[in-house]
Design goal:
The protein has helices at residues 2-38, 88-98, 147-159, 178-189, 213-220, 223-234; strands at residues 41-50, 56-63, 71-74, 77-79, 120-122, 128-135, 170-177, 199-201, 208-211. By secondary structure, it is α+β, with helices and mostly antiparallel strands. The chain folds into two domains: 1-38; 42-240, Nucleoside Triphosphate Pyrophosphohydrolase, CATH 3.90.79. α4 packs across α5. 34% of the residues are buried. It is globular and about 45 Å long.
């Protein structure tokens, strides 16, 4: 009976060993798969600001060198890099800091703990993007974030010869009412993604803007989850915009 018990224990340990090996192999394969999948991924941050009047806006960066009447704008976002350690939140934070002025950015001290816990995965053509959310009103007291401070920060970065090109992709910042961005996404969702349908004007100043094709295509395909997260954050129902 003792021999039988010993035999059963050995069999049990063999099964556990096999399971551990399979788990380790599976984890290694998953890590490799993740790195491959991430090679085409993008990540960024939707910067949200609530103004004293109660309305909510997105802070969008204007592409440096834009000269046309309708200025091209975007969220601070970009391509995954291997130094991001297979974590798209690292990508989003890195890109956000680079595209809001780098060392001059009022967001340079933002960490993962400041980012809203819910994110949205968007799947436009030719890749995917994960967008996180940051409510600038909730940052520590004394951190002033708005289109003015961000605009000055990116201009200072452009003027700094010691900074690389990744810090000079954005030339200015604009505030756009959230409802106007959602309306544009709905227009595109219902038809072709033309330049005219992804246009809106800035908040406070009547500047004509249009969200870049790639990101508007992503929002248009994911209007419902976008509105759900925006409602969680702002307590406003944008699905009816």
């Amino acid at each position: 009976m003792f021999n039988k018990f010993t035999s059963e224990i050995k069999s049990l340990f063999s099964i556990i060993s096999i399971c551990l090996v399979m788990t380790f192999a599976s984890s290694s394969m998953e890590a490799q798969r993740s790195e491959q999948d991430l090679s085409t991924a993008r990540a960024g941050v939707i910067l949200l600001k609530q103004y004293p009047e109660g309305d909510w806006a997105m802070l969008l960066g204007e592409k440096a060198g834009t000269t046309q009447e309708w200025k091209s704008v975007n969220f601070p976002a970009g391509q995954y890099d291997s130094k991001d350690n297979r974590d798209l939140q690292n990508t989003a934070l890195r890109e956000m800091k680079e595209e809001t002025g780098g060392p001059y950015s009022p967001l340079k001290s933002v960490t993962e703990y400041d980012i809203y816990p819910t994110y949205i995965d968007l799947v436009p053509p030719n890749g995917n993007i994960r967008l996180y959310f940051l409510v600038v009103n909730y940052l520590p007291e004394g951190v002033d974030v708005g289109k003015g401070t961000l605009g000055k920060a990116v201009k200072d970065a452009i003027a700094d010869p010691s900074l690389g090109s990744s810090y000079k992709e954005v030339g200015n910042y604009w505030a756009v009412c959230v409802k106007d961005v959602v309306k544009a996404a709905k227009r595109v969702a219902g038809s072709s993604n033309t330049a005219q349908k992804r246009q809106f004007t800035s908040r406070g100043i009547d500047q004509k803007l249009q969200l870049e094709f790639y990101y508007m295509e992503a929002l248009a395909k994911n209007v419902k989850p976008l509105c759900q997260i925006l409602q969680e954050i702002t307590d406003l129902d944008y699905s009816k915009s």
